[in-house]
Amino acid sequence: MRIVMLGRPGAGKGTQVLHLARCHGLEVISTSEVLRRAAATPTPRGTAIREAMSSGGLVPDALVVDLVADAIDEAGGSIVLDGFPRTVAQCDALDHAFSGEPVDLAVELDISPQEAQARIRRRRTCPTCGVPVAGGRCPRCGSEGVRRADDDLDVVLQRLWVYERETRPVLDWFRRRGVLVSLDGSAPAERVTEELGNVIRCIERMSTVGAASGRER
Ligand code: ADP
Known about the structure:
- By secondary structure, the protein is α/β, with parallel strands linked by helices.
- It has 8 helices and 7 strands.
- It has helices at about 15-25, 30-40, 45-55, 60-75, 90-95, 115-120, 155-175, 190-215; strands at about 1-5, 25-30, 80, 105-110, 125, 130-135, 180-185.
- The chain has a 5-stranded parallel sheet with strand order 2-3-1-4-7, with helices on both faces. A two-stranded antiparallel sheet has the order 5-6.
- α4 runs parallel beside α5.
- The longest helix has 28 residues, at about 190-215.
- Adenosine-5'-diphosphate binds near residues 57 and 64.
């Protein structure tokens, strides 16, 4: 199964993909984690990525696409993409990276810009793993959660604006393909997890029925 998670900054994508990994056996490709690793290298590419991330802009498509395509190749089977695609050009590149095998599900976690700002003001992130920290300590490595540098208000406003301009058309791209599901991201995290689980089970059942009727023909 191939899933992509979409939604404004602060919508809860990072929290839900941790659950998808734990309970549905999906391998998570976190674009920002992939980018942070590449940004740490002392190369012109590393500098370009660092500058884009710290300003709240998008990393140029060509750089992101190369890095994510490599991560997809390494991961192989069932995956969930967190933070990719964020532009229509990245959608087209994703088609190519999956070599004709389509995305099964695109999930939009829908929250208002006001809710996004309020959540980001409160949120803490693991400085090592980049995952959301809810209870003081990172669920993966136990580090103390910190405020991300790009969670400062002016950078957040820029990220929200970039989302409207660049990423909103991505929702329409997946809607046209009939795979977009919008969930209310302002609901409590456990409720979102439950709804996401229902959607996944429904898709799994449909693909089992599809495979069985294919065998009967
Ligand atoms: P958000 O909370 O905005 O969803 P992320 O942690 O997913 O934040 O991403 C942080 C930053 O990494 C973005 O603001 C952007 O600079 C960069 N980034 C992440 N994914 C992409 C992408 N698909 N294309 C370009 N830049 C990206």
